[in-house]
Amino acid sequence: MTNETYPPLPEKGQALFLDFDGTLAPLQDDPDTVALVDGAAPLLARLADRLDGALAVISGRDIDDLARRVPDTLWRLGNHGLNIMAPGAAALTRTDMAPAELRGGLTGLSADYPGTKVENKGSVLALHYRACPQHGEALLAAARRIVDAVEGYGVQSGKMVIEAKPSGANKGLAIREVMKQQPFAGRVPVMAGDDVTDEDGFAAVLDLGGFAVKVGEGESLAAYRLASPQAVADWLEKGIAE
Ligand SMILES: O=P(O)(O)OC[C@H]1O[C@H](O[C@H]2O[C@H](CO)[C@@H](O)[C@H](O)[C@H]2O)[C@H](O)[C@@H](O)[C@@H]1O
Known about the structure:
alpha/beta, Rossmann fold, 2 domains, four-stranded antiparallel beta sheet, trehalose-phosphatase activity, magnesium, HAD-SF_hydro_IIB, EC 3.1.3.12
């Protein structure tokens, strides 16, 4: 990693959008065991204070799942931005469900490929294949056939995961939405993320005059890079120290 790609430090006047898995928390084989890097919870809370509250964790995770893993003093945007939880808000009573044909189709597909697992996030479904990466291509092709037959749904590829999500579940749309409200409005948006779903968010922050930080390897719209969740935490810490 060269110095040229090290991002400018977070500072007052910005609005920070931070992805969770792979950005604030190291990836794990089991999504249930994932946690913020050590020390990140108080760090995020202090940084949010410094930004007058304009800090959101934005994730593909179910909103209640995300809310269990990050401080409740932060904005939390779950299900790829479909659900928005303001600071202090408690768990949602959610009744949303993906269409039955989608649930049945992906559950059936998972049964054909031992090692895969369907994560049910209400309207969004994730088919995990971290335990059998050799089947990724076949699973993607089969999942596309199932998802493309359901109106209003599309496939979102990610790290060892294939998700079926409604068209409104898009990190870019969510960022545009919250940037219209306080405490975000009028600030320079900055986003850090590691996966394909974050590219929608990157496109939005760039369009709104901000900048994006890609975590790890891979093609990206982002002009800046950090190597790992620990490097992200160090960058945020430096921003507070400034
Ligand atoms: O937007 P994110 O916060 O990055 O969430 C994206 C997905 O993260 C989770 O899956 C990913 O992380 C798991 C835990 O490290 C890993 O096992 C899996 O292979 C990754 O795809 C989460 O389970 C999904 O619901 C999120 O959409």
